[in-house]
Amino acid sequence: MMKNRKGVAVLLGVLALGPILAMTSCGPTVDLTGGNTGGTGVGPVTGFGSVIVNGVKYDDTGIDNTNFFDGHGRTKANLMAGMMVAISGTINGASGTADNITVLRHVDGPMDDNGVDLATSGLKVLGQDILVDTSTVFDNVITSLADLRTLQGANVNHPELEVHGSADNNGVIHAPFIHKWTDDHVVGDNVQVRGKVTGLDTAAKTFSIGRKTVDYSALGSIPAGVDNGSFVDAKGTLRAMDNALIAESVKPEDATGGQPSGSRAEVVGYVNRVVTPNASFELIGSNGIQTVTWTGTTPITGGTGADIRAGVKVEAEGTRKVGGALAATKIEIRWANNVRMESKATSVTAVSLTVFGKTVKVNALTQYKDSSSINLRTFGQANILVGDSLEVSAFLDNTTVPASIVATRVERIGALAADRRILQGPVDSFLPGGPDLFILGIDVLGGTAVFLSTDETPLTQAQFFQVLADNQAAGKTTIVKARGTDSNPMSANELQIEPTIDN
Fold first, then answer.
1. How confident is the model at residue 33 (pLDDT cuts 50, 70, 90)?
2. pLDDT at residue 12 above 80?
3. From CA 503, how far away is CA 493, in angstroms rounded?
């Protein structure tokens, strides 16, 4: 039997996949066939005051221990921003009512040897490749990949981590939330992994998800419908002699949630492949793969139809068709989070805020969290005051001129020292050899700065700016994090090259 702290998600009724705060677990299948307002939201939680997913605020007053499914013993009070969940209920525009909440985790298990790669912002857990960006929420003492690297040491420890997210077309999991369970793997603990089946061997009764071998011999046979390319949820324990996952259950996932035609759906994930150019593509989300169709009249924000290609993150809203495909009535392209700002808000409106003198747009998909001493659970745009210290994660929308800064996550934090503000983004230009450069149009003075590489190795000024020059010559974007004053020009005391996240 699986321990209570391990869980499996199920999808129900009409689907809406997108950012929401919640966690996954074993729960009953619910059929929501009544009316065209039924729906299910699946994705990372973006806020509270109810539970907000894909811009829909679900009233959760009816949620208790009988209809909240986590598998780790959590309740709805334990939900955090960034957690992936499935919410089944009803939807009426931007409002809804939750009937069930199920927590969805993508990977649950120990870090691999040499599990952290700061140079690529990568993490390896249970044989899965995971990508962390500026919007990733770390929970339970850890605050960064650097913390996990320190905790692991020279492969002395293998922390058990719960990773939420969605995989892209290459199987890399983009993580909005990571929770640490233990500092080291406990033998016999249950593990869980979701993903596409490869290398199915019915004679040996094995298959792989990522680099992890799954042995399903204890089940007798593979469940119906599972084949190479199928998206499954496998749970079990690790075999000591070869670290294979000995499956106690293998569950094929249906990304459509069994929705009847005509049901509303909002889905967030990565383009797995384009099926028909300018007409349809496969979307891979936290609960599997589904087909999305669209036409030349479908509104697209954040880009154009030409930008819908394998590996791109999108949100699609529409209506479920016979056979399960989603006919999109709206598509939003979500670009990589390479922008980070930590400073005071100097202006706030209902749709934007100003940090470092730059206007940052917010929208229905922006995630909010309050980590200040106030610790307001229902924190949102309306609660931000001029003078609040904020950490903003964002991407650049290049469909506007100049490019717009769009926030994916806004966190209120404690007061920052005047010389500890952070500005991170693509380098616009730089002086050959240094010490100065421009980030997001802000002049950054590096004459007295400490220079660091992506893995935090110290660099000389000459070495640092040679990396910028080499990238420029190769046509590559360089992302730099500057720490210093909130001013233009900014006086930087630390400059570090950051990994460039492409999707």
1. very low
2. no
3. 30
107-182 and 191-252: identical CATH topology: yes
Show the tokens assigned to 59.
């009233």
Closest CA to 266 of 56, 52, 49, 21: 56
| CATH class of domain segment(s) 264-334 | mainly beta
Q: Could you tell me the residue ranges of all domains in the chain?
A: 15-104, 107-182, 191-252, 264-334, 417-503
Q: For the domain 107-182, what is the CATH code?
A: 2.40.50
Strand ranges (DSSP E) for 107-217? 107-117, 122-125, 128-131, 137-139, 160-167, 173-182, 191-196, 198-201, 206-209, 212-215
Length of the chain: 503
Q: Which CATH class is domain 191-252?
A: mainly beta
Per-residue confidence (pLDDT) for residue 449, from 0 to 100: 97
Q: Identify whether the C-beta of residue 424 lies closer than 8 Å to the C-beta of residue 498.
A: yes
Q: Report the C-alpha gap between 197 and 206 in whole angstroms.
A: 10
| 218 touches 197 (CB < 8 A) | no
Alpha-carbon distances, residue 499 vs 155, 218, 336 (angstroms):
23, 42, 12
Question: Within 13 Å, how many C-alpha atoms sit on residue 171's CB side?
Answer: 19
pTM: 0.90
Of the candidates 261, 254, 273, 231, which has an alpha carbon nearest to the alpha carbon of residue 327? 261
| Secondary structure class of 247 (helix, strand, coil) | strand
pLDDT at 13: 31
Residue 258's SS3 state is coil
Measured distance CA(259)–CA(11) in Å, rounded: 9
In sequence order, the β-bridge partners of residue 292 are 281, 326
Q: Cα separation of 84 and 19, whole Å?
A: 7
- 397-409 per-position pLDDT tens digit: 988 888 999 999 9
Tell me the C-alpha distance between 10 and 169, whole Å.
22
Q: Based on the number of CB atoms within 10 Å of its own CB, is 93 exposed (0-12), middle (13-18) or buried (19 or more)?
A: exposed
Torsion of CA 297, 298, 302, 303, to 10 degrees: -50
Classify 383 as helix, strand or coil: helix
- DSSP secondary structure code for residue 303 in this structure: S
